[in-house]
Structure formats: structure tokens, C-alpha cells
Please model this.
Amino acid sequence: MTAAAGSGRRLRRFGTHLMLVMILITLPVIGLISFLDYQEVEQRLIAEETLLREQTEKSVVEMITLVDAGLNLFDETLDHRMEEGFGPVLAEYERAKRDPGKMDLSRVREELGGEMDIYIINASGVIEETTYPPDLGLDFRGIPYFYDRLTEIRLGDAFVADRVVAEISTGKLRKYAYMPSPDHRYVFELGLAEPGFREDRTALRYGDAVRELVNLDPAIREIRIFDCLGTLISGEARPDDDRRLEMVRQAYREKTTLEVENATAGKLVRYIFVDMGDGSYPSDMSLVIELTYSTNVAETKLAGMLGQHMNVLLIAI
Model:
């Protein structure tokens, strides 16, 4: 009996040791398989997320460019009307013996139908006289590329139409056009106010055009669009806009794409420069698109994957 009992205990100890050895072998193998699978899934999710982001941003840029081409076609329909408007301005300049201070700009504005404001820009790039008081004294030397273009117009002999752009002082839309004075001392500028074209032009909006595209990417939380001066033209203002505007201006200045990641908040913000400069227009129509992504989408999927592997490991144990 004693020998049999001892043999039984040895068998039980052997069985226990065998089970422990199997556990020690099985758990690391399962853990290694789970780790490798997790890494593979993580890399695949990151690659898919990056590819979707690149495709979305490419589509957004293409749509913005397409909308701008449509807006340009509309803007050009106003060129002839504005070119004709310079006739009374030039006649008044000659009547005042080429002295802007003696020109009756209010009367000329009424003669043009009351829809166009008149600006007289001197050789220093300063608005010396105007029918629009908020812009009186505006100095374009603060916008070097635009001042250089005004100088070219002043020294030339041709009518130059601009695009519909936002006023610097108020942000309201206007269609601008330019004509040099006969003595090349000034640039005459006409600005057609928004009511003259608002209804026809609102069918094409940058924000509306890209909204459907970004809805295809579940990681995008917000899209905003800024013009070359950093003016918000689509989207809502935010409390931290001072910091964000610095990034917008840097992206425009360097003509590149910048990104800022906030891992704590689970956000990635990308600033994409869209080059739409055209030497035939004084204004630069280039834009900067701000796309805010959530980084939690992939993390949520990975967390679910990790939970599944933990369940497998517990079942194995």
C-alpha cells in the first residue's frame, strides 16, 4: 500500500508539473501571437487612416480649385461693367485739374448708380481719397506683393480687373478693378459692393463644396477655410484662434502643409496651403484649409482589438 501510495503521489506530482510546463509554454506563445497580431492590426489601421486622410485632402483641394474656377468665370462677367465705370472717374480727375482733393467723388459715385465706391491710391500705396470712409488712409505697403502689383498698374496704361475678395476693414465681399491715372501719379480703384452680385454668386461656396467630401472621413471633426490674409471665410470662430491664425499665416508664408497634434485631447490639426495665385489678378486667391481630425477613431478600434486578445488569453488560462 505504501509503495502504491507513493507511486500515486509521484504520478500526481508529474501531472501537476506537466500541466505547469504546458501553461508556461502555452501562455507566452498565445501572448506572442496576440502581440504580433496587435502590431499588424495597428500598422494596418495607421496605414488605412493615412491613406484616407491623403485621399480626402486631395479631393478637398481639387474641389476648392474647381469652385474657384467657377467663381472666376462669374467674376469676369462684371469686368466690362467696371471698366466703363472709370470713364466718369477720369473725366472728374481732368475737371479737377488732376488734383484728387478737388474731385467730387460723391457725385461721381451717384453717376455710377451708387453701387461702386471710388478709391484714389497714391504712389506710396495709401488710399488718399475715397467715398468709403473705413478705408481712408489704408496703407497697402503692409501687403508687399499687393503694393508691388499696384505699382505696376500705376506705371502701366491698362485697365486691370480683380477678383471678388473680402474688404480688409470689414470682411465684406467686393469686386475691385484698377486704372492708372493719365499722369501715372495715382491708381484709381472701383469697388462694387456685395448686393450687386450676392444672389448670383452664392450658388458656389467653398464650405458647401467640401462639406460632403469630409463627411466621408469619420475622423474629421471640423473644417475651416482662411484666405491669404488669414480671414476666416468658412467655418466658425474659436477661442484659440490667435494661436491657430499663426499656423495659418505660417502655412501661407511657407506655402506648405503644417500639422499640430494634441495627444491629450486626441486631436490632430492640419493646415493645408492651396496655391491659387494668378499673376493676372492683383489679389492672391490662395487659401489655407484647416482640418481637425480625431485620433481616437483608430485608438478605439485598437482598444477593442486588445480586449478581444485579453479574452482569448483568459480563456486559454
